[in-house]
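Next comes one such specimen:
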Amino acid sequence: MGEEEGFVSQRHHQLLPTDPLYPTRSEIPIGLPSAGLARKDRSPDTSDEHCNIFYDKEKVELVEGGTFWLSESPSVPGSMSWGSVVPCIATWVIFQLKGVEPPGFSFQIVNTNIDEFSPRARRRSALLAWQHIASLPPSLPVVYCGGFNTQKVSTTGRFLLGR
């Protein structure tokens, strides 16, 4: 599982969930809008970790989005729980495709960075993100991606894989 970064649609560059520690934005096409906030507060501060989702506004419309903190207080910026060393976050966005028939096809992307040091924080963070996904209408497709910082055989890895 490890950390992943990259394009959901690499060939067409419609969506780009980034690695939370993306070293530079030089590989991101210039001018793409993004959704996501810094892990320590609600600012768009580029010096702090983000789980941004870049998108092509000609192909998709951002309907709704937000960031929550992977902690016992998910609405509190910078909050940490369960032995986390740094605040961890998940950014979510609901997109609607443009120019498709029938109109109105929507989907959600959840891009996250789960704690790399605390197994308990990883388990609880995965559960919190899954609860967010489970609260959505069952007809809404979801792409869950990001830095999971776990192995497939771990408790968290098996949970994320539905095993």
